[in-house]
Design brief:
The chain is mainly alpha-helical. It is 80% helix and 0% strand. Helix 5 crosses helix 6. It is globular.
């Protein structure tokens, strides 16, 4: 990166965008790599824009090329997703992006089958993915500081890895509580 910053950035963003658009589940690892290579601020910006753009591309392709065939395979899981989106709109997409309730590739597919503008999809995805992207990129910056086995058991690394494990669980509890109750009412 230090020798070829522009080329490295372009390659990284291209790989990230392609992996998300092609439903290859490596975005968490790429976000951590962004922290290692680019640092916290630049890594977060690059990872977040790349993830959002990749998700929007997959959304666009499903809506443009596979809309009719995807409609035939609607399952119970999609119906629940669809009902929640109809009840809560973009807030539901934002929440789904923050909490790993559904795999991200399914969110892209499901959203392509619902009445939402591409710009709305991009913005809600961008904002919803921001907190966890920041945490993963931050993890990369912490991992980059490990130079020996003694560096592994630092408070900073333990707290960061604990956040990665606990925040999604905590958010999922809140998500399930809010969206399950509202649907039952």
């Amino acid at each position: 990166y230090l020798s070829y910053p522009l080329i490295t950035t372009i390659i990284f963003c291209t790989v990230y965008i392609f992996s998300v658009a092609a439903f290859i589940p490596i975005s968490s690892l790429l976000s951590i790599l962004a922290g290692v290579v680019f640092g916290l601020l630049k890594g977060t910006i690059l990872a977040l824009f790349s993830a959002s753009l990749g998700a929007t591309i997959s959304f666009f392709f499903v809506r443009s090329l596979f809309y009719q065939s995807a409609l035939k395979f609607r399952k119970k899981r999609f119906e629940k997703f669809s009902d929640n989106f109809k009840a809560h709109g973009s807030t539901y997409l934002f929440a789904v992006r923050m909490v790993p309730v559904f795999p991200f590739f399914l969110v892209n597919i499901f959203m392509a089958l619902l009445p939402i503008k591409i710009s709305q999809f991009f913005l809600a995805s961008f904002l919803g993915m921001a907190p966890m992207t920041f945490i993963f990129v931050y993890t990369g910056t912490v991992l980059d500081q490990i130079n020996s086995y003694k560096d592994i058991l630092t408070l900073n690394l333990i707290v960061t890895l604990s956040l990665i494990g606990c925040i999604p669980i905590f958010l999922k509890l809140i998500f399930n509580r809010n969206f399950s109750q509202k649907q039952d009412d």
